[in-house]
Amino acid sequence: MRFSPIQFLAATLTFETAALAQRTMGFIGCSMAENVAQGYVAIGGQKMWGPYGTGGAVVQSWTNTNSASWQAFDRQAQQNGKPTEVWVQICIFAQNGVNYNEVKQLIANARQHAAPDAKIYITGQPLYDPGQSCFLAGANGPELTESMAQQAAADATQNVTYPGPFRLRNGEVQDGCHANSAGQQSLGRQAQGYFG
Ligand SMILES: *[C@@H]1O[C@H](CO)[C@@H](O)[C@H](O)[C@H]1NC(C)=O
User: Fold this and answer.
1) Where is the signal peptide (predicted)?
2) Which of 29, 91, 108, 174 could make an S-S bridge to 125, C-beta 3.0–4.6 Å?
3) Was domain 25-195 assigned CATH 3.20.20.140?
4) What radius of gyration do the chain's Cα atoms show?
């Protein structure tokens, strides 16, 4: 197969555009953030990183700025450039929970690992329709993470933005916590609405 010069040029430009299309928004969180990222990529979201293996990475995986989770974040930042926006998802296991000092540590670490003056968004993990919740986070766990996110956004010393809650509806949950593929896409659309 032979290419004309025009075809060759077009192929080269397509390749270069793909190489330059880096994602400028990072995120931290657990498998529930991964569910959002999976859906965001599935619906064609362009700005935020795709999933990068954050399963199980609840709050305490991110409080130490040198943790394996932050090292994984830094590898994404090497590939995409340091993110100019970071979404911090507060995600918990019932037995560990979360306190506000931990939330502030996550925000400080996000600033440290992102580009200078990066915009920081913060949310809880997704909320559910009445009658459902996330067994991993425990009874009222998702609501606790939401209230922590809102507390941080109301705290002028933190300079973070709360865009609103993520929600999983009935029929969007696969195992008593995580999103099924319809739920992932729903979460992805919510992320696109909040972040672009
Ligand atoms: C607050 O965050 C914005 C980005 O959202 C940044 O441009 C600004 O410098 C920050 N302000 C302070 C006082 O750190």
Assistant:
1) 1-21
2) 91
3) no
4) 18
Q: Over the stretch 49-100, which tens digit does the pLDDT of each residue have?
A: 999 999 999 999 999 999 999 999 999 999 999 999 999 999 999 999 999 9
- Quickly tell me which residue has 């793909």 as its tokens: 18
pLDDT digits (tens, 9 = 90+) for 21-46: 689 999 999 999 999 999 999 999 99
**Phi-psi region at 85: left, alpha or beta (left = phi > 0; alpha = psi -120 to 50):** beta
DSSP code of residue 15: H
C-alpha of residue 89 to centroid of ligand 1, in Å? 19
Element (H, E) at 120: strand 119-124
Where do the domains of the chain lie?
25-195
